[in-house]
Amino acid sequence: GDSVTQMEGPVTLSEEAFLTINCTYTATGYPSLFWYVQYPGEGLQLLLKATKADDKGSNKGFEATYRKETTSFHLEKGSVQVSDSAVYFCALRTNNAGNMLTFGGGTRLMVKP
Amino acid sequence: EADIYQTPRYLVIGTGKKITLECSQTMGHDKMYWYQQDPGMELHLIHYSYGVNSTEKGDLSSESTVSRIRTEHFPLTLESARPSHTSQYLCASSASPGGTMNTEAFFGQGTRLTVV
After folding, report:
1. What is the spatial distance between Cα A40 and Cα A30, in angstroms, rounded to a whole number?
2. Which among B14, B73, B76, B72 is positioned nearest to B45, based on CA atoms?
3. Which residues of B touch A (CB under 8 A)?
4. pLDDT per position as a tens digit, B63-112
5. I want to staple A21 with a disulfide (CB 3.0 to 4.6 A). Which of A56, A75, B37, B38 is the partner?
6. What is d(CA B23, CA B75) in angstroms, rounded to the nearest whole number?
7. How far is A14 from chain B (nearest CA, A)?
């Protein structure tokens, strides 16, 4: 079946540091890939997405590139801020199993001033 | 901003009580979902619906039940709450225009349930 594996957290960085959160996936067919962010006490919000190989999703300084050859969708940001502290979820969606979203386990990011 | 709402945001209730967590969306989405989020953050799909009068159990076994009588409304009910039901519950919805898998899911703010 489909699965998503994320690097375990928490990830602790100083402000303005470079961020990478690794995400790899296993899927039948050609999935769409998503990154969601969950701020404390809130639900999930879509951060960015990519729907085909080599697409780059970007939003709020975050980027992720759909790499079919390595089945990866790593999240990056050049300079993190304290306000980026949150939990980040990688997810995929395929035409299998009724278009269900499959989530990774989440990675908590803590940014210190 | 997503138009999907969950009530209540927080609920503390005694063991054995019946509770209903409400979820409504105004986007006309046909698909709706309930996730349970454990303290380790992982999301577990417990129920989903493809449309009115359609409900299915998710990957994680749950003692809760759901109904989908109207497109916009997808309540979750626990007939007899237990401490093991203490968790964060997240509702989500998505469209599926032409069966595309490119559309994202929109999430409510969640209900944090504590059973004492």
Report:
1. 32
2. B76
3. 2, 6, 31, 33, 40-43, 45, 48, 50, 90, 92, 94, 96, 99, 101-102, 104-110
4. 999 999 999 999 999 999 999 999 999 999 998 765 556 678 999 999 99
5. A75
6. 6
7. 23
